[in-house]
Amino acid sequence: MNAGWPVELREGDVTLRPIRARDQRSWQEVSRRNRDWLRRWEATVPPAPVGRSSAARPTYRQMVRYLRGEASAGRMLPFVVLYQGRLVGQLTVGGITWGSMCSANVGYWIDEEVAGRGIMPTAVALAVEHCFRALGLHRIEVCVRPENGPSRRVAEKLGFREEGMRPRYLHIDGDWRDHLVYALTVEEVPEGMLNRWRAIRSGRSQSN
């Protein structure tokens, strides 16, 4: 079982909490409205081999059931992102691995309507802080398509290191796509991820 789950994390107007079945209406409304904005970055299922039928896209409830099962098994932390109480995106800590690795990866998306307000860097900082301090993970990765400037800026703002390219890493928008790997270990943020982000935001506001 996942000792760090369920959990609700909050910083200012930004909240991370577990995704729920009753989020369906809000989640689908945001997803539909942002379909064109998100399509280039969303994972897709590759075509099935000849003679086999392609897997159907899961329903919202099937997705939530799967995510909650993975969370209970300690392999995932599936959050929705709330801004001023409204659902505006999703953040998932996935691929949680224990043993000699103690690592995970973070993926995220946000409503275009509120992009650029520091919401997603705050959400990622909350998640990384929880992974390092509460769960005891050692390394967090963020893998981003090179063309996805906004997602790259989230990782770069928080001080993730760019480690290189993974060719044809994930099936995105109908084809296998290269991804840049950003990473951070707990030793690189002795001050804590949230304290780092607060200092960055404070420095930015003082310089304006």
UniProtKB/TrEMBL annotation:
PROSITE patterns per UniProt: GNAT
GO terms for MF: protein-N-terminal-alanine acetyltransferase activity
GO cellular component terms attached to this protein's record: cytoplasm
Keyword tRNA processing assigned: no
Keywords from the named record: Acyltransferase, Transferase
Residues in coiled coil: none
Pfam families: Acetyltransf_3 (PF13302)
Entry's EC annotation: 2.-.-.-
Boundaries of every N-acetyltransferase domain copy: 14-187
Domain of life: Bacteria
Gene3D superfamilies: 3.40.630.30
Transmembrane domains' residue ranges: none
Record-stated family: Belongs to the acetyltransferase family. RimJ subfamily.
Protein name as annotated: GNAT family protein
